[in-house]
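Progress narrative, Year 2. Work on Probable xyloglucan glycosyltransferase 5 from Phoenix dactylifera advanced from sequence curation to structure prediction during this period.
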Amino acid sequence: MAPSLVLSEWWTKDTRKGGTPVVVTMENPNYSVLEINGPDPEAFGSMDKDRGKNAKQFTWVLLLRAHRAVGCVAWLAAALWALLGAVKKRLFLRRGVSQEREKPGKGRLLFKFIRGFLVLSLAALAFELVAYWKGWHFQNPDLHMPESFHMLETIEIQGWMHKSYLSWLSFRAKYIAYPIQVLSNICIILFIIQSVDRMALCLGCFWIKFKKIKPRIEGDPFKADDGSEYPMVLVQIPMCNEREVYEQSISAVCQLDWPKDRLLIQVLDDSDDDTIKLLIRAEVSKWSQRGVTIVYRHRLVRNGYKAGNLKSAMSCDYVKNYEFVAIFDADFQPNPDFLKQTIPHFKGNPELGLVQARWGFVNKDENLLTRLQNINLCFHFEVEQQVNGIFLNFFGFNGTAGVWRIKALEDSGGWLERTTVEDMDIAVRAHLSGWKFIFLNDVKVLCEVPESYEAYRKQQHRWHSGPMHLFRLCLPAIITSKISMWKKANLILLFFLLRKLILPFYSFTLFCIILPLSMFVPEAELPVWVICYVPVFMSLLNILPAPRSLPFIVPYLLFENTMSVTKFNAMVSGLFQLGSSYEWVVTKKAGRSSESDLLAAAERESKTSQLHRGSSESELIELNKLKERQEKAPLPVKKANKIYKKELTLALLLLIAAARSLLSAQGIHFYFLLFQGASFLLVGLDLIGEQMS
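Result:
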C-alpha cells in the first residue's frame, strides 16, 4: 500500500521551515509521487552541510512509522483475539473453570435483579433498533414539554409497532424518567458530599506535610543500660492454616530488638490441619531453643474467629504481668526496631491507648490487581489514617501492626466475638471510653496484598459487611456515650455512614444501574461532569500518595466501579444481618514477602538439619513422619479460575447500554459504558490478578 499524502503532510507539519519545494520520484512504481517542502539548510549543523540529502531516508522513516502502527494494530488484534478465546474457553467450553457457588440467600436477590434488568435491556435494545431502522428514532427527545406530547399525538401512525413505540416514548417520559431522575439527583448529591470529604482529607494531609506535623518522642526513653526502663511487652501472632507465611512472621517477631526477659511471644494457632500445626510447633521449638521466650497455643474450641483467638490468649494468668501487647498477622514482618519506635510514645501519655503503624507491601508490583490495591491502601494510610490521627485522635484499628495498652483493652470490654471486624469494634469502644490513638506514618511493617481476585473479593466482602453489622450494634452506645457531640457526629456521619454505607451505595447505583438505564430513558440523562470529570479528579486525589501509580488512573477508576457490586452486596448483607454478614474466610497468601530475603531463604533450607540437632526424640519421630507424608503426598492441583455471574451479567448490561448509546450519538457515555463493560467482563472471567489455572 502506498503511503498516504495525509500521513506525509502530518509528518512534515511541524518540521517545515521554509525553502523551495522538492519533487521526489520514488524508484518503486508502487509508490506515489510526493511533493514536500525541502528543509532549510541552515537548520542543520555544520557537519550536515557536506552530506547529501537522500530522499530515500524520508521514505524509510515513513515505512518505519507505518510498521510501528501496523505492529500496534496487530498487538490490539491479538489481545482482542486472546480475550475472545478466553471467553469461548470459559463460557462455552468450560475448561478449567468453576462457577461461583453462592450459599442460599447470599447475593441471590441482587443477582436476580441484575439478570432481570439485563433481559429488559435486551428487549428495549431490540425495540430501539427496529424503531431506528424504520426512522422513528428521536435524536434527543424532550418529552417533558407539552408540545412534545402534542407532536406525538399528531404523528401519523404507521402500524401497530409504530403505535407501540410512540406509547413507549410517552410512558417512559410520564412514569419512568421522573423516578430515575430523582434517584439520580440523590446519588449525585451523595457523590458531591463524598467528594468534598475526600478533598478535605487531602487538604488535611497537605497541611500535615507542609507543617511537618507528626508524633515525636521526647528525650531518651531508655536511659538505663540494664533494661529496667523497658516495659513488659506481649507480642501475639494469630494465624489459621497459614502454611505459606507462618515461618517468616515468627522469624521476624523473634528478632525484635527488646530485652528477652521483658518480651513474651504468643503464637496463637487456630489451624485445623495437623501438618500445619506440626510445622508451626517445630518453628516455635526452634526459636525457643535459641533463647527466645515464645509459647505455642492451640485452641480446642475454635469459635469467634480471630476475636475468639485473641480473647482466649488474653485470659492467660501471666498476661497481667505485661503492660502492652503488639499484634501481627501471619504475613507481617516488623523491623527489629519496631517496639523501640512505638512503645516510647506511651511514656508520659497515660491517655494513649493505641499506636498504629502503616503497612508496606512487598508484592505491590506483582500484577495489575496488586498495583490497584496499593493505590487504595496508600490513600487509606497516608491520608485517612494520618489526618484522623492528627486532628481527631481516632481512626479504625487495622487489626495488625499496632501496639495496645492492655489497660485500654480491659477498660473497653476486651475482644468481642460479635462481628468479623473485631479490630474496628475494639477501636470504637476504646474511643467511646476516652482513649486516644496515634498513627505513625513513618513506621512501616512489611506484608502482602492478595494476588488473586478470588481472595481479594472475599477480603473486601468482610471489610464492607463487618462495619455495617458493627454500626447496628454500636449505634445505641455511640448515642448514649459521654463523648462530645462533634465526636459522635464524626463517628456516625463520617466514619460509618459516609465512608462505609454511602460510598458503595452511590457507586453501584449511579454507575451500574442509573447510567445504563439512562441510555434507554434519555430524558434522565446523566451530565458529563458526573460521568467523567469528577471521577477522574477524585481518582487523581487517590493516586497522590502513590504518584508512581499515575499511569494506572484509568484502570483504577474502572476497577473501583467494578468492585462496587461486591461492596454494595456486602454492605447490604451487614446492614440487614443476612447470612453472609458473619462469614470469615482467611485471605489466601502467596508468601511473597519471604522471597525478598535471601538470608531467610538460606535459613529455611537448613531448617530441617537444625531441628534434628536440637529436637527431642519424640519430635524427631514426628518430623520424620511428616517428611515421609510430604514425600508420598500427590502434587497439589491448582485451583481452577472462577466465573463470577454478577460481574458477567453487569458486563453484558453495560455493553448493551453502550450499543444503545450509539443510536443517540452520546460520545462520552458510549466510551465510558464500553470500557466499564470490558472491565466487568475481565473481572467476571477472572482475568485480573494471579492466574490460578
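The chain is about 55% helix and 10% strand. The first strand starts at residue 21 and ends at 24.
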